[in-house]
Amino acid sequence: MIGRGGGVTRLKQHLAGGYPDVSNCPKVSQEVRRAMKEELDGKKALKYKQQRERELVDSRSSKEPIYDEMEGRGEVPNDEDFLAALNASRTQYDYEQNMQHRSCSGASGSGSTTASTLGRSASTRITSTQGGIGRFFTSMGRRRAVDIADIDPLAFPDQASKQTRIDDAYSKEKKKSIGKSIAKFFHFNHIPPNAANNTYYRSMVSNIQKSGPGIQPPTAYEIAGPYLDEQVEEIKTWILSCKKQWSLYGVTLMCDGWTGPTRMSIINFLLYCNRKVIFHKSIDATTDYHDAPYIFRLMDSVVHEIGAEHIVQVITDNGANFKRAGEILEQRYQTLFWTPCAAHCIDLMMADIGKLDIVKKVVKKGQSLTKFIYNHHWVHGLMRKFINGEILRPGATRFATHFLLLKSLNQKKVGLKAMFSSEDWEASRYSNTTEGKEVQKIIMSVRFWDYIADILIAVEPLYVVLRKVDMDKKPQMGNVYCLIHEAKEEIKRRLQLPTKYQHYIDIITKRWDDQMGKPIHLAGTYFLMITNF
To answer: Are the beta carbons of 364 and 515 closer than 8 angstroms?
Structure first.
């Protein structure tokens, strides 16, 4: 059947036909032949795409930085604020040029790092019929998210160090020897294999290739001592460059509470400015009572450290103590806003939906059947046989996880029904137990699955909003009003009848009006509209 070799790929080639080193199957249908051909072509295209992405990463270090000092000016008057913004950009550009050409092992780094940090791409001045601030925002263009190269130009390998492909330069035996040596270092030090996808791994290999033989590797002392100290100083220098932009762009102060497994309570303060987040400090609040006055004192002290004139907004979670502390802070400082966390607000909407009687009953039944399955090894093994996988059992840290459980059950619906109607189940001792009969009754209930479908239909649009506002890649303040409005309209469209959707809409509206009706969100929406139109 197969000319030489073997494996799944050659079997697919045998079925697809048209490969010189593999014989064609004379009995395969045209439909199967076409499917195998599409599968092989898709893998070939994916491999080509991955190769192009690797080449793009390497090419970043060889490109000259793009800096257009006219970018973003549009028709804005030549005032002092705008000139200050332009000078700040130039200052950051000069700093990052110095970072790019610094070297303790020969300069290597991404030549496009500066352009990345400034959020610029190769661009020309945009002409528009709009005037004033609308034209200014349009000409700025869209900015991409910050990546590691924006902090450290050495994160990517230097193009100059790129050598001949190892397949061409060495024999397969030599390549295998190198691969085994690197793999042993990973395996014996418990390093996850996907660490090889890190840009610093490729940069390290690139520098070793460029340096050639005879260079001694750094010792443990050097890694934990001088080199670590240098990294710390570089990060401190980078943070200072970010602080210079506070007066220009303003700062968002983020306050986040966290309780560890030992019940140690930590309150973290982070600073966001111009698409960059900086850790400011942590406070051990384990022995303190977290009432509104205490939270206010903490936030007030951080505001003094940063400077109230730099802070635009303070973001916290939606707890009553943080809300009251934020309101007091707004009263003391008239120039800043307290803003509750949008992701936490949506999470609380889902918690309120979870308190509805019908939702609570369905979630409880779903939890009981997963508990039964995973508490009995034989039943668990039978389930794996029928659904070919696992039921998602997310932790109880967020209210949205209940709906992930229902979604996972709905996806495994056919397999679970087949399992509890199989001869293996009927012949087992578990089918005669009270708990087993109750679980089987739940699985075979048409109403149970109908309720799950309705809940998922209603909650999925809200979950999509949660995913968007909780992501780090793109700021969502300007979009959050539109996203909530679109979610409510989508729920109405899906459920159609007011008797089905109205209680969901009421919950979303009440939570939003109570917590998220802030002027700063409206301002973000307004500027987004100017940018788009």
So the answer is: no
Please, which residues bridge with residue 254 across strands?
270, 315
Q: What is the mean pLDDT of residues 294-312?
A: 88
Summarised one tens digit per residue, pLDDT across range 124-177 is 333 333 444 343 334 444 445 555 555 555 555 555 544 445 455 456 777 788
C-alpha distances (whole Å) from 127 to each of 68, 121, 135, 144, 507 are 15, 17, 8, 22, 45
Residues in contact with 329: Cβ distance below 8 Å, sequence separation at least 6, in sequence order = 296, 299, 300, 303, 314, 336, 338
Domain ranges of the chain: 8-60, 63-155, 249-340, 349-532
108 touches 157 (CB < 8 A): yes
Spatial CA neighbour of 511 closest among 359, 348, 322, 317: 348
- Per the CB < 8 A criterion, the answer to whether 114 and 176 are in contact is no
Region class of 147: left (phi > 0), else alpha (psi between -120 and 50), else beta: beta
Task: Name residue 337's beta-bridge partners.
Answer: 313
Q: What is the DSSP string of 250-306?
A: -EEEEEEEEE-TT--EEEEEEEEETTEEEEEEEEE-TTS---HHHHHHHHHHHHHHH
Phi, psi (rounded to 5 degrees) for 256: -135, 120
pLDDT digits (tens, 9 = 90+) for 464-519: 888 777 665 555 665 777 788 888 888 888 888 888 888 888 888 888 777 666 66
Q: Which of 284, 285, 255, 253 is nearest to 268 (CA)?
A: 255
What would the pLDDT profile of 10-46 be if each residue is shown by its tens digit?
888 888 888 877 888 888 787 778 888 888 888 878 8
Axis-axis angle for helices 30-59, 8-16 (nearest 10): 130
In angstroms, the CA 21 to CA 5 distance is: 9
For the chain, give percent helix, strand, coil, nearest 5.
65, 5, 30
> How far is 76 from 92, CA to CA, in rounded Å?
22
Q: What are phi and psi of 273, to 5 degrees?
A: -155, 125
The span from the CA of 429 to the CA of 377, in Å, is 13
CATH superfamily of the domain spanning 249-340: eRF1 domain 2 (3.30.420.60)
Q: What is the DSSP code (8-state) at residue 316?
A: E
